[in-house]
Amino acid sequence: MTNPPATADALDRYEAVIGIEVHCQLRTASKMFCGCSTAYDGAAPNTHACPVCLGLPGALPVINRRAVELVLATGAAIGARTPDATRWDRKNYFYPDLPKGYQISQYDLPLAAGGSLTIDTSDGPFSIRITRAHLEEDTAKLVHAPGTGGERLSLVDFNRSGVPLMEIVTEPDVRTAEQARRYAEELQLLLRTIGVSDADMERGQLRVEANVSLRPRGTEAFGTRVEVKNMNSFRSVERAITFEIERQAGILEAGGELVQETRGWSDDRGETYRMRVKETSDDYRYFPEPDLPPLRVDPAWLDGIRAALPELPAARRARYREQLGLTPYDAGVLVADADATRLFEATLAAGADGGLDPKTVANWVTGEYLRIRNAAPSSTAPGADPIELAALIRLVVDGAISRANGKEVFEAHLATGERVEAIVGARGLRQISDADALAGIVDAVILANPAAAADVRAGKTQAIGFLVGAVMKQTRGQANAAVVQVALRARLGPGPTAPRAGEDG
Questions:
Q1: CA 226 to CA 279: how far, in whole Å?
Q2: H-helix or E-strand containing 487?
Q3: What would the pLDDT profile of 152-183 be if each residue is shown by its tens digit?
Q4: Which of 331, 381, 438, 494 could form a disulfide with 320, with the two C-beta atoms 3.0–4.6 Å apart?
Q5: Can you list the domains of the chain with their CATH numbers?
Q6: H-type alpha helices, 92-167
Q7: What whole-number distance in Å separates Cα of residue 394 and Cα of residue 449?
Q8: Can you tell me whether residue 461 is helix, strand or coil?
Q9: Do residues 449 and 492 touch, judged by C-beta distance below 8 A?
Q10: pLDDT for residue 3 is more than 70
Q11: Mean pLDDT of all residues in 66-84
Q12: In whole angstroms, what is the distance from residue 416 CA to residue 91 CA?
């Protein structure tokens, strides 16, 4: 049955209450409770499995220390508390991809509790409280395929079974689909920055689920909660939550009742669909895991993890804005891309003796480098030598080559790895800034374009650009445009104020 559409008035009458759950595959070499490798991408099904991750009788789990460290690092990064002792729990449910019939997880004593993450939205900064970050093991993977007789088969691949997962749960602080998307994006950036996970949504390493309910504006009681799954991109997160808010508002406005359920998101159809009636925590029958002792966190161990954290994204953006004078946009673009961050920092360091302007370096990295890199196939993505980029920027700033030629040189450097000076010399791109050397070409251009010259003398200043372009063409872009403009105005009349030396026309 088609849901009644939600009107704008209906959407105004209700407030969305949204909590986000993120499952993140941790960057470990082995699984959570056994020694099986986590490098199973592309492997044949069921080749990365053992009695422990298959849940065979008598097999006992052993805790992966590295996985614990990564969750503790995440807790430190979000300002969470870590108890002196935490324990493991059994979460019981019966799915065909869960070999033991239960999942070893954490419930009331997680490794990290509390904390928050601040995001930037179109309405300004917004802080979202984080309830907990805890460890658990992943399930196996169901593969649905046709059989030889045309029947549908569901096959189980246990390569993923037992892989370390971190679940991060927020308080129901989120109010809009945009906030949900920005939170997921910022969390992914944080996890990658601290080295916890590759957090690739397309490979299933970061899975975002949203609990969405509506309540009349001005009220405190929560509405009926609906969980939304299968959102495989940040765009899908925003679209799915927007749809679900509108769906629920339409039902409520028509006098209907909502059911607590789990719904999937269909990107193709642009709508959510029912998967199953939602379980509650009581249905999982949590109880302490008898095969694992409580885990005690040594304070010195935790202090060492905190001290090893790199500069976090929010702090780096603030430093770029406040100390380096970058715009919020430039700071955001640089920090959101690890390659751009590394190139920007290294280029600034390489050009420190020459006093390169951070804004100028940022423009080259966010503009030219990311444009060229993003256009290249992923297998041949170019890398830039920061020393060479610093040298190139200095040549452009000093007027030794034009910016247009600088872009040409940069592309050649990225394609070949050749040094900037060698490319400039081989292509004869060094800028001509000697007025005497340009005088003959300027005079020739004026004689060849009498109408444009007459327009300049008559005060039609736009004609000067045509003549500058003609000189640039004659010199294959090597003439200093500022010097050319000065020469033209000296011959044809004062015209408007010439740009400063070193600027392009």
A1: 11
A2: helix 481-492
A3: 888 999 999 999 999 999 999 999 999 999 99
A4: 331
A5: 8-41+59-137+164-299 (no CATH), 311-419 (no CATH), 435-492 (1.10.10.410)
A6: none
A7: 35
A8: coil
A9: no
A10: no
A11: 97
A12: 55
Q: How far is CA 246 from the centre of its chain?
A: 27
Six-digit token string for 28 = 């470990």
**Residue in this structure with the two tokens 């992966």, named with its chain if needed:** 64
- Read off the DSSP letter of residue 368: I
pTM equals: 0.85
**Long-range contacts, 305-309 (Cβ 8 Å, 24+):** 305/69, 305/72, 305/73, 305/76, 306/76, 308/73, 309/73, 309/76, 309/77, 309/194
Buried b (16+ CB within 10 A) or exposed e, 402-431: bbebbbbbbebbbeeeebbeebbeeeebeb
Count CA atoms closer than 13 A to 296's CA, side-chain side. Answer: 3
Q: Residue 366 carries which DSSP code?
A: I
Residues 421-456: tens digit of each pLDDT = 999 988 888 777 778 878 888 889 888 998 888 888
Per-residue H/E/C for 255-319: CCCCCCEEEEEECCCCEEEEEEECCCHHHHCCEECCCCCCEECCHHHHHHHHHCCCCCHHHHHHH
| pLDDT, average across residues 15-33 | 97
What are 396's two structure tokens?
């452009």
Read off the pLDDT band of 499 (50, 70, 90). Answer: very low
- Across the strands, what pairs with 207? 23
As a whole-number percent, the residues of the chain with pLDDT over 70 amount to 95
Q: Which of 109-123, 349-363, 386-400, 474-488 has the lowest mean pLDDT?
A: 474-488
Q: Are 98 and 139 in contact (CB under 8 A)?
A: yes
Sign of CA dihedral 66, 68, 69, 75: positive
Q: Which two tokens stand for residue 364?
A: 């080259």
Name the DSSP letter for residue 30: B
The two tokens of residue 400 are 């030794």
Q: Radius of gyration of the chain from Cα atoms?
A: 30
- Is the Cβ–Cβ distance between 92 and 279 less than 8 Å? no
Give which of 212, 216, 210, 241 is closest to 224, Cα–Cα. Answer: 212
Is the pLDDT reported for residue 129 higher than 70?
A: yes
CA distance 322 to 315: 10
- Neighbouring residues of 379: CB distance < 8 A, sequence distance ≥ 6: none
Q: Beta-carbon neighbour count of residue 119 at 10 Å?
A: 20
Q: Tell me whether strands 164-170 and 206-216 are parallel, antiparallel or unpaired.
A: unpaired
- Spatial distance between the Cα atoms of 349 and 355, rounded to a whole number of angstroms: 10
Residues 292 and 90: their CA atoms lie apart, in Å, by 10
Kindly give the residue spans of alpha helices, DSSP state H, lying in 323-434: 328-336, 338-350, 358-363, 370-375, 386-397, 403-416, 420-427
